């Protein structure tokens, strides 16, 4: 098999960034295109915040606070404290350095530029060589319908610490949203599409919901490789397991496999979930077992290398 050169990854934030860092290290980063969820975006203090775009960009730029998985390393929060003095909400921790990113993005949008343009401006300024594309330039905020009513995704996750019971999830405005420039081409032109280990419902789900994206993946199904974000029934990161269960899905590798089977040729599970291999294969996907828990850079590189070395499903 000729090794795949052009890779397109679908990504949320913290979970995805671990694998992306591995890919970035083991391949020519200029051959990597990353399509990022923007359902997590929020307007705060008049600023457009795009957490997943920033998490991916900061990670690949080597400036991320790797303990938290978001924001800048060695960050300070003086501006946030001043905002609180003025009675402004401070439940979302916007650091001083991070604020510059949001001011720059918001200024560009105010000048009539697109979110893609802003994302590209930020990633080139930070020296990231891979293309980072928002899934759409149109706002598609994730709304969590919960026992406490409708919540913006960040309100649910950060302000309410994922405590409300999730009854439904929708992506406001998605039916009329268009994929950002280059997104569909990146899926069609890639030698391999990798679905990163992100929350299937609120990180990969919004990307799939943008009209045209799911269909393009289905058309390339044998070249789509998805890394399962659930290991041993637990999320690698965040509340995926809890959300899956609350919405009636099995919180397991098999539960995620059922969601991904229509557009995925190869499903990658951790050795901890080996017992589910036959049930997942019965969904019509090739199943590959690889260690997916990435604690060190060596683990990230190892998984990335292994993913690039796999043969397509048929
Ligand atoms: N996550 C938190 O748990 N608490 C925060 O205060 C917080 C602030 C924040 C600021 C900028 C940013 O880009 C991300 C931030 N995150 C924070 C992470 C974010 O809420 C989520 O992890 C992602 O949206 C999910 O990928």
Task: Tell me what the structure shows.
- 39% of the residues lie in helices and 18% in strands.
- The chain has 314 residues and is α/β, with parallel strands linked by helices.
- The protein has a domain at 7-46 and 115-140 and 172-309: CofD-like domains (Rossmann fold, 3-Layer(aba) Sandwich).
- A seven-stranded parallel sheet has the order 5-2-1-9-10-13-14, sandwiched between helices. The protein has a three-stranded antiparallel sheet with strand order 7-6-8.
- The longest helix is centred in the first third of the chain and has 15 residues, at 96-110.
- Ligand FO1 is lined by residues 12-14, 40, 49, 51-52, 54-55, 70-71, 92-94, 98, 154, 157-158.
Which descriptors apply to this entry?
globular, 39% helix, 3-stranded antiparallel sheet, Rossmann fold, 314 residues, 7-stranded parallel sheet, alpha/beta, binds ligand FO1, 13 helices
What secondary-structure arrangement, pairings included, does this model have?
Blueprint: E1 7-11, H1 14-26, E2 32-36, E3 42-44, E4 47-49, H2 51-61, H3 78-85, H4 96-110, H5 115-125, E5 131-134, E6 142-146, E7 149-152, H6 153-159, E8 166-171, H7 183-189, E9 192-195, H8 200-209, H9 213-219, E10 224-227, E11 230-231, E12 234-235, H10 240-246, H11 253-260, E13 266-269, H12 277-281, E14 286-289, H13 297-309
Parallel strand pairs: 1-2, 1-9, 2-5, 9-10, 10-13, 13-14
Antiparallel strand pairs: 3-4, 6-7, 6-8, 11-12
Helix pairs in contact: 1-2, 1-13, 4-5, 7-9
Bound molecules: ligand FO1.
Question: What's a concise summary of this model?
Answer:
The protein is α/β, with parallel strands linked by helices. 39% of the residues lie in helices and 18% in strands.
């Amino acid at each position: 098999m000729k090794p795949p050169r052009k890779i397109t990854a679908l990504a949320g934030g913290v979970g995805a960034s671990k694998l992306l860092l591995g890919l970035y290290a083991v391949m020519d980063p200029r051959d990597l295109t990353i399509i990022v969820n923007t359902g997590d975006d929020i307007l705060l203090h008049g600023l457009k915040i795009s957490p997943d775009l920033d998490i991916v960009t900061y990670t690949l730029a080597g400036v991320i606070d790797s303990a938290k998985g978001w924001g800048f390393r060695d960050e300070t929060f003086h501006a946030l404290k001043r905002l609180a003095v003025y009675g402004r909400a401070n439940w979302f921790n916007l650091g001083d350095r991070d604020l510059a990113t949001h001011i720059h993005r918001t200024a560009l949008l105010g000048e009539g530029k697109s979110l893609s343009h802003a994302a590209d401006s930020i990633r080139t300024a930070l020296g990231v060589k891979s293309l980072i594309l928002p899934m759409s330039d149109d706002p598609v905020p994730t709304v969590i319908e919960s026992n406490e009513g409708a919540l913006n995704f960040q309100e649910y996750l950060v302000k309410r610490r994922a405590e409300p019971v999730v009854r439904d999830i929708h992506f406001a405005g998605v039916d009329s949203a268009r994929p950002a420039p280059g997104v569909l081409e990146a899926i069609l032109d890639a030698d391999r599409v990798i679905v990163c280990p992100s929350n299937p419902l609120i990180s990969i789900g919004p990307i799939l919901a943008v009209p045209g994206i799911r269909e393009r993946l289905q058309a390339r199904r044998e070249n789509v490789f998805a890394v399962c974000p659930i290991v041993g029934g637990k999320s690698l990161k965040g509340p995926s397991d809890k959300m899956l269960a609350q919405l009636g899905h099995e919180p397991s590798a098999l539960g995620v496999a059922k969601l991904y089977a229509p557009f995925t040729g190869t499903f990658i599970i951790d050795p901890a979930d080996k017992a589910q291999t036959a049930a997942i294969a019965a969904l019509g996907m090739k199943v590959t077992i690889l260690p997916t828990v990435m604690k060190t850079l060596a683990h990230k590189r190892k998984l990335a290398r292994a993913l690039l070395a796999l043969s397509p499903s048929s």
